[in-house]
Write a structure and sequence with these properties.
The chain has 432 residues and is α/β, with parallel strands linked by helices. It has three domains: 13-144, Nitrogenase molybdenum iron protein domain (Rossmann fold, 3-Layer(aba) Sandwich), CATH 3.40.50; 156-268, Rossmann fold, CATH 3.40.50.1980; 278-428, Nitrogenase molybdenum iron protein domain (Rossmann fold), CATH 3.40.50. It is 44% helix and 13% strand. The chain has helices at 17-21, 36-40, 62-67, 70-83, 95-100, 104-109, 130-144, 170-183, 198-203, 219-229, 242-257, 261-281, 283-288, 302-314, 331-341, 358-367, 381-388, 412-428; strands at 26-31, 88-93, 118-122, 156-161, 187-189, 209-213, 233-236, 295-300, 319-320, 323-325, 352-354, 375-378, 392-395. Helix 11 (242-257) crosses helix 14 (302-314). The chain starts with 16 loop residues before the first helix and ends with a helix. It binds iron/sulfur cluster.
Amino acid sequence: MAKLLDKQRYKCALGAMQSVQAITRALPILHSGPGCAQKLSESIGSSGYFSPNIFPCTSINEKDVVFGGVKKLNSTIENALKVVDADLYVVLTGCIPEIVGDDSGEVVSRFEDSDKPVIYAPTAGFKGNNYKGHEQVVDAIVEQYLKKSEKKQKGLVNIWADVPYQDLFWLGNLRELEKLVSELGLIPNTIFGYNRGIENINKIPEAEFNLLVSPWVGLNNMKKMERKLGIPYLHYKTLPIGATETGKFLREVGKFAGVDEQKVENVIKEHEDYYYYLIERYADLFLENRVINKQFTLVADAQYALGITKFLANDLGLVPAKQFVVDDTPKNRREEITAEFKNLNFGLEAEVSFETDGYKIHEEIKNHDYHGYPLILGGYYEKELTESLKGNFLNISYPVQDKVVLDDSYVGYTGGIRLIEDIYTVAVQRFN
Ligand code: SF4
């Protein structure tokens, strides 16, 4: 039976046009109705060399539904190659061409010999959300563009994490993961954001391994690359935030890459010394304020719900109430993610609910006794609710309307400190 989705937290698979846009000089070509790009585009941080307003689109209409839209797709690709200077052209299909059965793959194959690569990803909205669409885009690059390489570059690691634009912190988070990995003496390779793009895509097959930092998004891509390109992968499920998780992360990556243990410990010690120096200076605020209650709730995608729950429990000693994962996590991944929520320090365990219905989530939060002011980190939808409960609120997940994020990050030691600053900035305002 059809479900009503109250308070939508993601977009349809065609929203992955933002993943393409995040690859410097990659151009999405939309084979879709004329309204799709406009509905799916964000005004936040998405202008630039290419923006949703100029993405070539077939704008298919009633006539194309009856007679098929392949001719239009052919001419749109042809003209995009002529007039838009890009390094990679990615055709994304919306609902209508897939319902009427346009063979977009066949049309794209006609451009095999063009000067610039043209690939395509099936991203009809009815196939899933933009987390899935993001995977489809990476899959298309692996399947249709990359080739296995016999040449390997020592220490080269492809890093995959985060869905660009869906998470406003995507750029800063990726850059921080790169920094952490390079401190181990490895060479990080990512494809999204400033100064990456096609050159970095070309390096993917030369990597010694893929590092996936995500509870589930991208796991299918890792498996595909292992099969097709012979690249092994390390799946690290928790976004490392703060000292506890970042230490674990560095040790696990170091072990997988064969980095000298002492070297890893030295990196961790240098960071921890500074991290705990900062925490110590504000210990009074953390321990003696009466406005950050011990119990907290996250309403976020699996990445932040898990990463921040571990951070707040392990580093700040707060106690998890129920946590809500709102990214429509595939059912076959839920058990292992649930197990991670039970793997907290101090014998703590967090109850987790995979729920996309905002109404139900809000009812549960309202009916829970937080024994004081609740601390709620979630989407903008939770702001009013938290105010009605006289709680403390931080907008960390989609939709974000409370914060402008250029390259801020919640990853690593510095990311943990940023998150503490943000949470306690909310708290100290209550003293005024
Ligand atoms: S659900 Fe279909 S029609 Fe709607 S925006 Fe997505 S691709 Fe376009």
